[in-house]
Design a protein that fits this description.
Helix content: 25-40%
Order of helices and strands: HHHHEEHHEHEEHEHEE
Strand order of the largest sheet: 3-4-5-8-7-6
Largest sheet: 6 strands, antiparallel
Shape: globular
CATH superfamily of the largest domain: Chorismate lyase-like
CATH architecture of the largest domain: 3-Layer(aba) Sandwich
Strand content: 25-35%
Structural class: alpha+beta
Radius of gyration: 20 Å
Length: about 240
């Protein structure tokens, strides 16, 4: 163990967070922490490397963004199942997608409130009917043109400050990935017609074809969010790549 730490330190002496990150990556690569295993806590890493908690947090955040670990608020950091990571649809922040195209993104919040869950919403989130849920309705724009109508319900137990967030400055996807990292996602993609309200918000006709994604995420069996994402068919396409 000491030899590994010294070797890692020698290779990455220029950045304290990189020493922590490389140490964890080496351990993952060697099988020290198999998929699903609980990894060292932030406090353990702070003591082991004599660095600040902020430094450790940065290392763990980068590993999470690379799909190598899963961070569960209140429980710790777990080694990711790499087979699952490589074979599932990546959940990306729409804001980042638009910026990568060199375009402008802005959002309009049409609804943000606490509600009593209806039977369909409760079923989607795996909650009891009548449970308290958060509900947002947001339209995302690309270069001033409506691109996505996002109708989302959130389990307050996973994101208690959800409604206090300014979603004109940060997307719900980005916020939820920070405070309630997902462990599993279920989704369905279909071509369909928008509702009358969705058509009005997107500036299209009710008969215009749309790409509709319905997605539900959970964290170790605890429901996080259920979202209906509606995109005008003429303005959006799904892109990605697979590497076995």
């Amino acid at each position: 163990m000491a030899a590994l730490e010294h070797a890692v330190a020698a290779r990455t002496a220029q950045a304290p967070y990189a020493r922590v990150k490389e140490y964890l990556k080496q351990g993952l690569a060697s099988g020290r922490w198999p998929p699903g295993a609980l990894m060292p806590s932030e406090a353990e890493l702070v003591n082991r490397f004599s660095v600040s908690r902020m430094t450790v947090t940065r290392a763990l955040r980068e590993l999470q963004s690379e799909g190598l670990v899963t961070r569960v608020q209140g429980l710790g950091t777990y080694a990711a199942n790499l087979l699952r990571v490589s074979s599932t649809l990546t959940i990306r922040d729409l804001h980042e997608e638009i910026l990568e195209r060199g375009h402008r993104h802005h959002a309009e919040v049409h609804l943000a409130r606490e509600e009593t869950a209806s039977a369909p919403v409760a079923a989607q989130l795996g909650l009891e009917r009548g449970s308290r849920v958060f509900h947002t309705l947001i339209v995302h724009f690309e270069n001033g043109l409506p691109l996505q109508c996002e109708d989302r319900h959130v389990n307050p137990a996973c994101a208690p400050d959800y409604l206090q967030t300014d979603f004109t400055q940060i997307t719900p996807t980005h916020y939820l990935l920070q405070v309630a990292p997902l462990w599993e996602a279920q989704y369905a993609i279909e071509a369909g017609a928008p509702t009358a309200r969705e058509a009005r918000l997107l500036g299209i006709a009710v008969e215009d074809p749309c790409l509709i994604i319905v997605r539900r995420t959970t964290n170790r069996g605890v429901p996080i969010t259920s979202a209906r994402l509606v995109h005008p068919g003429s303005r959006y396409r799904i892109e990605g790549q697979f590497k076995p």
